[in-house]
Amino acid sequence: MFAYCNNDPVNNSDYNGAYVYGYGISGEAAFGGGGSTGIMQIMDDKGNFAIIITGFYGGGTPAASVSWDVLLVSDAPDIFEFVYGFSGVAGGSAWFIGYETIMGTDSDGNEFGGHIFSASIGTNPELHAGLCYACFEELQVYHGETIPKSVPFDFFSDLKPCIQDKLKEQLLILSYPSVTDLS
Asked: Could you give phi then psi for residue 67, rounded to 5 degrees?
């Protein structure tokens, strides 16, 4: 009944009822220090879909692996806030099964968390933790509508200014072909 707050509504809450879901593939290597990179398809309950590049840099037990991230679940408000605030990860894998807990802070200063469940191939077992990054590779659907081939940036005018700035920065780096007028 109270799954949204881990069956503890007194001590836990879901401040907005929103979720971000995803799946993807990643690779990592560590020997004391290390990192990972991956690509994920993410979506939210507001009808937004995107492909993002993710990764972390930090520390880990000596290991190298490739993982299929079967399921990402986060209580970030939407995919834009997820990419804006994704900042930390801790997890590990053993015998072909992996798990990570993720954390971040949205543009209003609210913390969000999440989980990534994965199947992995590599040296086992391993543990890792570090700082994360996420950036858009491709925006596919915005509020349930496929993004047209050519769209002015003000198409995203209902996003908060700080989210728009990060989105502009990432789209300029990618030279995103379907978004024009980024100035």
From this structure: -125, 140
